[in-house]
Amino acid sequence: MNIVIAIIVFSLLILFHELGHFSLAKLNGIRVNEFCLGLGPTIVGFTKGETKYSLKALPFGGACMMEGEDENSNDERAFNKKSVWARISVVAAGPIFNFIMAFVFSVFLIGNVGIDRPILTDVIEGYAAEAAGLQAGDMIVGMGGKDIHFYREISVYSTMHVGEPVEITYERDGEEYTTVLTPKYDEESGRFLYGFISSTQREPVGFFDAIRYGFHETAYYIDVTIESVKMLFSGSVGVNDLSGPVGIVQNMGDTYEESVETSGYYYAFLNMLSWTIMLSANLGVMNLLPIPALDGGRLVFLILEAIRGKAIDPEKEGFVHMVGIILLFGLMFVVMFNDIRKIFI
Fold first, then answer.
1. In terms of domains, do 314 and 167 share one?
2. Which of the residues 80, 89, 118, 287 could staple to 151 if both were Cys, CB 3.0 to 4.6 A apart?
């Protein structure tokens, strides 16, 4: 069951991503030869107009294959014949559609389960929050220069900035106050704590608030992904800390089984929806990174073309993307090996 759920989630992510490329390609008059889900031999397919729509044997990946995308073509509707801005819009549309997907699902999820408002129910004696005079009922609205909309943002901030002092803004009786908190190490939990206590209960919100907080939810996952990438490049976390498809499938499966046992199938579905939101936002960010072979790497070459007024030598660009693919496959192998190793440790 875990594998089936993972295939459904990953297929949705990839389908929506490729739908972004497909939609902007059609909008810009680019010929799309094939739109497929999966890789390998075709299981089933049909042709409508000029485009073949197909389902492949291997449930990994997908593609929007455009005329002249990776080779020269004399077709006037080929990708390489369109303006640089048209091509930029097509390449960028994949990650953008992932953000749109994350937002739509966030609105649905929040409409069903509400939000975890950053309101304190108490403070821990002997920690910074108590010393600064914070008390039950205070709402944290800012932390480290960032607006706070959910209580989990406080937990994430403390994880990303372990042991660092932070300026917080909190609201009490309609007034805002600012103070600086220095976290204290807690021997029992093995973590640095500010001394906040908040209820885990979510507060229901109306339709328009669900839309508003849907934006904040999507932005939250985008921000977490960006901060995680920064930590990776800064050396704060290593490759061994990353999770690939194997680790994600295992964690999703554990979440699903626990949800079914404790809350039933509907809440298990909502938890899978939460996973989908996180992964969709993550996929959007990762694809926009300026890494060869990814959408972000292709965008770098297109932006350089727009600035220079002429395209980069296709052979040189192809070589860079080929190196990028090799390095990405190497990283994927290392991450997958770590995932498998963690299962048996």
1. no
2. 118
Q: Looking at residue 181, which CATH number applies to its domain?
A: 2.30.42.10
For the purposes of burial, counting CB atoms within 10 Å of the CB of 46, is it exposed (0-12), middle (13-18) or buried (19 or more)?
exposed
* 73 domain-assigned: no
Query: Which residues have C-beta within 8 Å of that of residue 131, sequence separation ≥ 6?
Result: none
- The yes-or-no answer on residue 71 being catalytic is no
- Entry pTM: 0.88
Q: Is residue 206 part of a domain?
A: no
Given 145, 169, 201, which residue is the final one in a domain? Answer: 201
Mind listing the pLDDT tens digit of every residue in the chain (345 residues)? 677 888 888 889 999 999 999 999 999 999 999 999 988 889 999 999 999 999 998 877 889 999 988 778 888 999 989 999 999 999 999 999 999 999 999 999 999 999 999 999 999 999 999 999 999 999 999 999 999 999 999 988 888 888 899 999 999 999 999 999 999 998 888 889 999 988 878 999 999 999 999 999 999 999 999 988 887 777 666 556 566 666 677 777 788 788 888 888 888 899 999 999 999 999 999 999 998 888 999 999 999 999 988 888 888 888 887 888 888 777 677 666 666 666 555
Domain termination site, one of 173, 201, 229: 201
Q: Which of 18, 67, 69, 317 is catalytic?
A: 18
How far from 50 is each of 15, 32, 76, 228, CA to CA, in Å?
19, 7, 14, 42
Length of the chain: 345
Count of structural domains, the chain:
2
